[in-house]
From TrEMBL, chains A, B, C, D:
Homology family: Belongs to the myo-inositol 1-phosphate synthase family.
Ranges of residues in domain Myo-inositol-1-phosphate synthase GAPDH-like: 224-328
The protein's name: Myo-inositol-1-phosphate synthase
GO MF terms held by the record: inositol-3-phosphate synthase activity
Protein's GO biological process: inositol biosynthetic process; phospholipid biosynthetic process
Region of interest (Disordered), residue spans: 254-281
Compositionally biased intervals (Basic and acidic residues): 261-281
Amino acid sequence: MHATTGTSPRIGVWMIGARGSVATAATAGAAAISAGSASSDGCVTDLPPFRDASLPALADLVFGGHDIVGVPLPARAGQLAEAGVLPAGILDTVRAPLAAADREIRDGAGREGEPQAAAAARLAADITSFRDRHGLEQVVVVNVSSTEPLPDPDPAFLDLDTLEEALATSTDLLPASSLYAYAAFQAGCAYVNFTPSAGASLPALEQLARRRGVPHAGRDGKTGETLVKSALAPMFTQRALRLRSWSGTNLLGGGDGATLEDPRAARSKTESKQRSLEETVGHAVEGQVHIDNVPEMGEWKTAWDHISFQGFLGVRMSMQFTWVGCDSALAAPLVLDLVRLAALARRRGEAGALPALGFFFKDPAGSREHNLTLQYEALTRWATAEAPETGAAAANSPASTGASR
Amino acid sequence: MHATTGTSPRIGVWMIGARGSVATAATAGAAAISAGSASSDGCVTDLPPFRDASLPALADLVFGGHDIVGVPLPARAGQLAEAGVLPAGILDTVRAPLAAADREIRDGAGREGEPQAAAAARLAADITSFRDRHGLEQVVVVNVSSTEPLPDPDPAFLDLDTLEEALATSTDLLPASSLYAYAAFQAGCAYVNFTPSAGASLPALEQLARRRGVPHAGRDGKTGETLVKSALAPMFTQRALRLRSWSGTNLLGGGDGATLEDPRAARSKTESKQRSLEETVGHAVEGQVHIDNVPEMGEWKTAWDHISFQGFLGVRMSMQFTWVGCDSALAAPLVLDLVRLAALARRRGEAGALPALGFFFKDPAGSREHNLTLQYEALTRWATAEAPETGAAAANSPASTGASR
Amino acid sequence: MHATTGTSPRIGVWMIGARGSVATAATAGAAAISAGSASSDGCVTDLPPFRDASLPALADLVFGGHDIVGVPLPARAGQLAEAGVLPAGILDTVRAPLAAADREIRDGAGREGEPQAAAAARLAADITSFRDRHGLEQVVVVNVSSTEPLPDPDPAFLDLDTLEEALATSTDLLPASSLYAYAAFQAGCAYVNFTPSAGASLPALEQLARRRGVPHAGRDGKTGETLVKSALAPMFTQRALRLRSWSGTNLLGGGDGATLEDPRAARSKTESKQRSLEETVGHAVEGQVHIDNVPEMGEWKTAWDHISFQGFLGVRMSMQFTWVGCDSALAAPLVLDLVRLAALARRRGEAGALPALGFFFKDPAGSREHNLTLQYEALTRWATAEAPETGAAAANSPASTGASR
Amino acid sequence: MHATTGTSPRIGVWMIGARGSVATAATAGAAAISAGSASSDGCVTDLPPFRDASLPALADLVFGGHDIVGVPLPARAGQLAEAGVLPAGILDTVRAPLAAADREIRDGAGREGEPQAAAAARLAADITSFRDRHGLEQVVVVNVSSTEPLPDPDPAFLDLDTLEEALATSTDLLPASSLYAYAAFQAGCAYVNFTPSAGASLPALEQLARRRGVPHAGRDGKTGETLVKSALAPMFTQRALRLRSWSGTNLLGGGDGATLEDPRAARSKTESKQRSLEETVGHAVEGQVHIDNVPEMGEWKTAWDHISFQGFLGVRMSMQFTWVGCDSALAAPLVLDLVRLAALARRRGEAGALPALGFFFKDPAGSREHNLTLQYEALTRWATAEAPETGAAAANSPASTGASR
């Protein structure tokens, strides 16, 4: 099913944080599944409802990206196998594809004193060079790097012209995730933000995406506690059970644990977790969310949530859940799903935020729906639609000539 | 909102097990809410989407029923207040309405050697007498009595004529819950089965309901572990996470705990719990469900579920939840919802099983949908529809003249 | 068993925070148990091993104390009954005893500009006046007030003479809990610190206790998560299972929740929680402890702990526990136990910290033993010893003449 | 520390079930630790209090045993590494020692029509041949085979002479675990029963052990839920918190899960679990214990316990714990501990049940103490005692000549 015909157009996947755990697992997994060495468990777009969607095959994806970490992908895969994220049995199969992808990784680091307009042009050139070198139909840019602190508000974020003027001289106006979104759009690429960082969420960048006729999706992949929340919270509202408090503690190690120990970085994450809950139930709910760095837990996360609610005649009841998951293993297949779906949107000429992809995110761009089942219904409807539901076809988009439909 | 106008038609609620915990809580709660002494938390049909449905007001419900227990309703309410099911503060308010309802309770016990046809006629007469005495538009019969063992298969269950012939002489062919359904249909009443007992699920009774033009709904109210299951299980399928095992233990006291200690009675319950899971995910899942009688827990139940699943590249993960609930407090508002909705169906002339009410049940009659959100969507669509979606209007139904639409 | 003979010497209980939840529950409970209206569940000193200890009867306790809260004890008891801390059935029985205790409560608030030496003399006079007015053998002073921030180190805390010199003029050197300890010792009374506040833990106050020949015990009653820790942590060390991390989240409302929301106050509590664990296992353990204020939880607390450990050949395993408790109901009987035991120590003439009472505390004065069973063994040995084990009899202690042994 | 001197006497370890998970892990672990490739985490007798006990070194243990399973030990170790019980990194180190141990495994299967006296002689000959072939000081026989159903009572179990008379002709009087105990004693060997099977618990076998001057210990290794119980239950009694119910569910796969699916085999296990609890708290406690076979869990076990208790003035509270453990990894080091301790007892000439080893067992032979800390104290006292505490030195015991003390 995943074999490429050799004639189907190939799609580039340009990952920001290309040697991180998620990117390594996604790259290794795409190779293992394409080779028939692993099942596609965890890949949403391989489920029956997506059979009729015109999605690129995993075997047609070509991987590259930016990273400043030096450990090459085959070595990172070995580390992940020791941590239980990848099965040791696929390491031989994926060594060559990982080495190939590793050769396409560029150092994306900022340069001392370089204005951000110049930096963006440099990053965009890396991406278009990758596209041209491999004869790709299009490239999807995916942010899977470490969570950044959210930037303070700035008027330049609200208007594209103001922003572009500022970038000509400023060296630090945009956070890295937004600079990459800017570069992706300039290169005519779809952009996916799997992290809670700002990314393409600034209004000025939405303007740019629409002007360039490229789509984007984000933000903050819904892989654990919030995923469960978005399945459970509607139960309380549908049953008229009033939520009194919802408290959560997340224990995690790995890079994410260390990053989120910084309260400024954690804020963007805990805020989007709470927002989705309150938007679902329609009123404020007591309770806090903690993210603890527990280094010994490595790539694994344990979350505990306590929910207190009130039913008939005010009787108080409670429920709790614990979630023991491996974040990289949960995120990696969703990254592949998002690449396939963003490529489809690009082919269709959709521009701007893709609300139908809200299913994947804690803080869905262009949507306030958090009910997982309704998100799933919207996603499958969109993916299998004959014609684009949102946005007009951008006929003069440079990439649209490669659209296969 | 809940005050009756004095001119709106009144609806009878005839409960089988009318002095049980659920019936007592429902009767007391309807009185307390109507009097403005309690909020309608837990009542689904009071949620905004139901505002446009033509449902009877709680204040228009008149309560009665069958029971062989002798403790009168006001005394039962006192017991429930001590157990934390009812707030002590409403006891004064509900004393008179409970006493009134208690006067409408008849001893429904079988008589030695009485053929079931005669018994059904006697029970139906109790119901029609109640209707006539109070000038009710219609009566909804609700089974909230103890769970029975499921009957062994019998050819008479499959055909109405065969059944009626057999009832003329047999004294024990039908289990009590099904005999009540038979009597309700004969009396032209809607029937709701909140228990896992057979009730109206026999094909011969479905024939009778359609012939008489009356609706029914059931079975096995979804109030705890299975409610959570129907919210959570779709998350795994939508995310392509393969369920490996789902194990559950339910600790409960009260009458239910004692009844379900009998493995034959528990079987009907644990089977419907497992069926709904496997119908949702589409394949067999390892794991058992236990129901333990722990008398000291009284009216409260604690459930623990352990779920093991597999994601990308076969990585195994798990989640657990615990649920601490008061079954009577969860069931009582749903009984009121079901009465209002069944009365609406009866007014509309719908006949036979009501699949749109599957939202409330573990083993929904006429439906195999278990996804809670999709059930909720179907329910609200049905309740607010202009015209009946299922069944033809039964123009010559004796109760249809009272329909308010 | 609890009836007083009328001739046995009576013991005063002077509570700092006398109208708080713990004090109210302790006072009401002592009355209810003495009246035969409640069992002595939760009272350690009523267990069989203490039968031979010469402890005062509950019925011989006379209650009073300091508080700045105005709500009288009978009204506070009503609030606690609504919160599920006290059974409604004892309210009639305890109304008169609570009213009597309430008449013995004085406003202990500091006075603008009053040097602490003068304040202490005033507080001590309140206590001795209480003793004389009721002809009490002795008074035990118990701190059950809100947790204070820990004071910054000060040289005066290390030496009694320096301290007394400073108190003559300073208006804020000692935190309130320590000022009360100072006053208690000056009045010749035993002092028990049930809170994590500094209390008698300053070396200068230990000197004073020994000079005056009075005992003290503390600090931070072990009633929930840490109680479980002190039972569980030894299991890991005894089985050579290496603890990797121990993380905890405590959700609580009530006054305690609000107080501990202040990180400075919480620090004294979370620090003593971690210290006891690391002292038990002998090495640093990863993990954090959170105390969340969740007002809707009222007097109830839910704690969740996650423990990760490593066994044979490095295999990693985990356990979790949740604890749903009512802190006041857990603390109140221990306060009565501590009064009885401190009175015994005073009778025996023991002076200074009482390490044998470490069983009750997170941060036991005079001991680093945290294994609950070893603490229990030490306690029962001490309580039933024929002669004092620690400290010399203080023959010239004013209260020792009343000793019954 | 674990290196043998080459001159110290070597000790045989004869395992019944020598190719099972526990035996494989113990044999591999002893080799890995002796080689310095693994730490001794999980080995109780390597803790500081045992430094002065004269215990044999792990490097002085020589492994063999009976099993009817054909998969050789090195292959079994490979399976356990895949299941996460053994680290893959030690497989090379332990291959040769495992192959050597595997050559010492004999088929212990019963022979059609063979009287049990003859079978016992044959099994004993296997053991003595092993001892002689390797010049061992002594052999400790350890039962780590699958759990058997408990036998029905029989008069022959109560008296040694009656038993021996019956064994001369009966082919199935004794369950296998007891037949092995009989054979071990006849061969002058200490016997350890790590399973819940009957083993040496029959009075007639106790007589034989005393007559032969050999010690034994058992039964049912305390490795998971019951281990936690024996640490936690004393907390409730020491704090006068009355246990109302204690319910447990154990989910496990592997061979144990399948064996315990047979209710007759499970009975011996669930009974000993409940007994230890009720012996600890001194009264009956509501609640059931379930053992579910969930094959997909493999070697891992998840247990959930729910505890309901009552405190001051009858307030009801609860706690829960979950335990995620690998039974083989928990049991294997204890097997090594028990071998070392039983060898010490044999050297000292102690005969009959060893109550000081109750620390390791759910149903300790010769003791009713279940408090884990008190058991640990008793164990360390016994292990470091100068002279035997129990039993007289059996001067004429054939093995005592090799005693090193």
